[in-house]
Design goal:
- The protein is 50% helix and 16% strand.
- The protein is of the alpha+beta class.
- The strands form 3 sheets. A 5-stranded mixed sheet has the order 1-5-4-3-2. A 5-stranded antiparallel sheet has the order 7-6-10-9-8. It has a 4-stranded antiparallel sheet with strand order 12-13-11-14.
- Helix 4 (96-105) links the parallel strand 4 and strand 5 (109-112).
- Helix 17 crosses helix 19 and helix 18 packs across helix 19.
- Residues 7-128 form the Purine catabolism PurC-like domain.
- This is PucR family transcriptional regulator ligand-binding domain-containing protein.
- Residues 470-528 form the PucR C-terminal helix-turn-helix domain.
Length: 534
C-alpha cells in the first residue's frame, strides 16, 4: 500500500525531528505519492497532487494573506501535506495565519522541532512508495495470470466469481442488464442478505463510465461485454475504494466476456445455422428458395420432400439462474440433435426460445411418417424429459411454416391441458388435445370470452360480491358426472349443505341442472374459463 502522511511521520528519519501536527489532522490518511523539497513560495505549479512538501520556510512570505494563500494553493493542487523544519526561519512556532489556513483546508501541517536531513526523509519515503508500486505490480501480474488461466481452462462464471471474491475478500455478483443476478459468490457472507432486494438496490447504483465506485453503497461496478455490446455488470460489494480492486474487477469482467463468446462458439456452426433456418421459416425472414438452398448445403434436403414440424418443450421447474437456463437449453438442443442422428433422420434442429427446440423432419420417399415420429420419440427418452408435439405432414417447403406453427400450438395446448401424456406414442398430434386443448388454443378469441361471461358471469359476480364459492361447487358437480353424492363427498360438505348450494347456483344462473344440455354448456364454459385464466 502507498504510505499515508501518518505512516510517513512514524518513519525513523522523520521522528528524529520531533514532528508535531499543528493542523489538518483529518488529512493524515492521505496517500503520499512523492516527497518534494522546495523553499519556493510558488511551488504549487510544480506539483501534480499527492506530494508531501518539505521546507525550512526561509522564502515564505511575511504577509498574513500571502501565507494563507500559500496553504490554499497547496490544498488546491492536492498536496498530501506540508512539513516545515523550525530553526532557520521560524524559531519556536509557525505563523498563525499559515496554521489557520491549513486547518481550514484540511491540509496536514507538521512542524519539525529538530533539524533532520531532508535527503534521508526523501529516501525513506520514496523507498516505501516504490515498494508499494512494486507490490501493486506483483498483485496486478498475479491477477492477470490467474484470469488468463481461468480463460484458457474455459472456467464457468461461478469459478471466476469465486476467484474475485477470494482475491478481494468481498462478495462478487454478476448481473444482466435487467439487474437480475446471473451468478454470485458471497465470500462467506449470508447470501440472503447479499441478494435481498437486489434489483432495487442495483438500479440505484449507476456510476459514470464503464468502471466506477459508488461511495454511498460501497459498490465497485464494471460493465461486462465484448465486441462493443455490453450484456451485464460485475459488482464487488463493499469494496474499499475505487482504485483498490479496479484491475481485479476489470480483468474478471474481460474473462467473463471472453467466456461468453467461447460458450457461443461451443454451439456448433451447424446448430447455429439450423436455428437460423428454422427462425427464417417461422418469421418469413428467409425466402423459400433461400431456405432450400442453405438446407441443401447443410445436407438436409427440404425441397420436394414431405415435411413434419415438431416442437420439443423442456419439462421440469424453472432453473435458479439465467446462466443455468442457457446451459440447460444448450444441452437439451444437443440431446435432440443426437436423437435425430441416432435415428438416421434428416432434419433441422435448433433452439427457438428459452425452453423450446424446433425440429423440421424431412421424410424420404420410403419413410413412413408414423414410424419416423415413433422412432424420434423413443430416441428422446434417453435425454432430458420433454414434451413432444408434431404438426401435420406437408408436401412442400412453402407449407413448412404451417406445420411448425401447428406443432407449437399443439405443444402449447398439451402443456396446459393437464389430462393427457401423449398416450402410448409419447407425443401429441392434433387429435390428442381434445376439448380442453381446443379451448386453450381459442383462449384469446373474444367470442370465447363472451361465451364464458354469458354462461358464468352472474355466478362469478355473485361469488365476488358475497364471498361464496358457487363456481367451485358447480365445477365439482360437473366433474363428478352430475353425481350429487360423489360431488358432496369431493367438496367435503354434507349432502344437505351441498344440495342447498346447488339450488343457489340454479337460482343465480336461472338454469335447471337436471337438463343435460345446460350442464354441458356450463361445463364447456368452466373449461374455457380455466383456459382464459391460464
Amino acid at each position: 500500500m502507498v504510505p499515508t502522511v501518518a505512516e510517513v511521520l512514524e518513519l525513523d528519519a522523520v521522528r528524529l525531528g520531533g514532528p508535531v501536527v499543528l493542523a489538518g489532522h483529518q488529512g493524515l490518511a492521505a496517500e503520499v505519492r512523492w516527497v518534494h523539497v522546495s523553499e519556493l513560495a510558488d511551488i504549487a505549479g510544480m506539483l501534480r497532487g499527492g506530494e508531501l512538501v518539505l521546507t525550512t520556510g526561509v522564502m515564505l512570505p511575511d504577509d498574513r494573506r500571502a501565507l494563507a494563500a500559500y496553504a490554499d494553493t497547496l490544498a488546491d493542487v492536492g498536496a498530501a501535506g506540508l512539513i516545515v523544519e523550525l530553526g532557520r526561519r521560524y524559531a519556536d512556532d509557525l505563523p498563525k495565519p499559515l496554521v489557520r489556513a491549513a486547518e481550514r483546508r484540511g491540509l496536514p501541517l507538521v512542524a519539525l522541532r529538530k533539524e533532520v536531513r531532508f535527503v534521508a526523509v526523501t529516501e525513506a519515503v520514496h523507498a516505501l512508495v516504490l515498494n508499494a508500486q512494486y507490490t501493486r505490480l506483483r498483485a496486478s501480474e498475479a491477477v492477470h495470470q490467474t484470469f488468463n488461466e481461468l480463460a484458457v481452462e474455459g472456467a464457468e462464471p461461478a469459478d471466476i466469481l469465486r476467484e474475485v471474491a477470494r482475491m478481494a475478500g468481498a462478495p462478487a455478483v454478476l448481473e444482466n442488464l435487467s439487474h437480475q443476478v446471473l451468478a454470485f459468490d458471497p465470500a462467506g457472507q449470508d447470501p440472503q442478505v447479499l441478494l435481498d432486494a437486489w434489483e432495487r438496490r442495483s438500479r440505484a447504483v449507476a456510476p459514470a463510465g464503464r468502471t466506477g465506485h459508488d461511495a454511498r453503497s460501497g459498490w465497485l461496478v464494471t460493465a461486462v461485454g465484448a465486441r462493443g455490446s455490453d450484456w451485464g455488470r460485475l459488482v464487488l460489494v463493499g469494496a474499499d475504494g475505487p482504485g483498490t480492486h479496479t484491475v481485479l474487477l476489470e480483468r474478471a469482467a474481460a474473462t467473463l466476456a471472453l467466456g461468453r463468446l467461447l460458450d457461443r462458439d461451443r454451439e456448433s456452426l451447424e446448430r447455429q445455422t439450423h436455428r437460423t433456418l428454422l427462425s427464417g421459416i417461422l418469421t418469413h425472414a428467409l425466402t423459400v428458395s433461400d431456405v432450400g438452398l442453405r438446407s441443401r448445403a447443410l445436407g438436409v434436403p427440404l425441397e420436394g420432400r414431405r415435411l413434419v414440424g415438431v416442437m420439443l418443450r423442456q419439462r421440469g421447474g424453472p432453473p435458479s439462474a439465467a446462466l443455468e437456463a442457457q446451459a440447460r437449453l444448450r444441452d437439451f438442443t444437443e440431446s435432440a440433435a443426437l436423437a435425430v442422428r441416432e435415428r438416421g433422420l434428416s432434419a433441422l434442429v435448433g433452439a427457438l426460445d428459452d425452453g423450446t427446440v424446433g425440429v423440421l423432419v424431412s421424410l424420404g420417399p420410403h419413410d413412413e411418417e408414423q414410424a419416423v415420429l415413433d422412432g424420434l420419440a423413443a430416441g428422446l427418452k434417453s435425454g432430458p424429459p420433454c414434451l413432444m408435439a408434431a404438426g401435420s405432414c406437408v408436401g412442400a417447403l412453402r407449407d413448412a411454416r404451417r406445420s411448425l406453427l401447428e406443432a407449437a400450438q399443439i405443444a402449447d395446448a398439451a402443456e396446459h391441458g393437464g389430462e393427457h401424456d401423449g398416450g402410448a406414442r409419447g407425443y401429441y398430434r392434433l387429435p390428442d388435445i381434445r376439448l380442453r386443448g381446443l379451448l386453450h388454443l381459442l383462449r384469446d378469441d373474444a367470442r370465447l370470452q363472451t361465451y364464458v361471461e354469458r354462461e358464468l358471469g352472474r355466478l362469478l359476480a355473485h361469488d365476488a360480491e358475497h364471498g361464496t364459492d358457487l363456481v367451485r361447487i358447480l365445477g365439482v358437480y360437473l366433474a363428478c358426472g352430475r353425481n350429487k353424492s360423489a360431488a358432496a363427498d369431493a367438496s367435503h360438505l354434507s349432502r344437505p349443505s351441498f344440495y342447498d348450494r346447488l339450488r343457489r347456483v340454479e337460482s343465480v344462473l336461472g338454469v335447471d341442472l337436471d337438463q343435460v344440455e345446460s350442464c354441458l354448456s356450463l361445463h364447456v364454459a368452466l373449461l374455457a374459463l380455466d383456459a382464459v385464466r391460464r
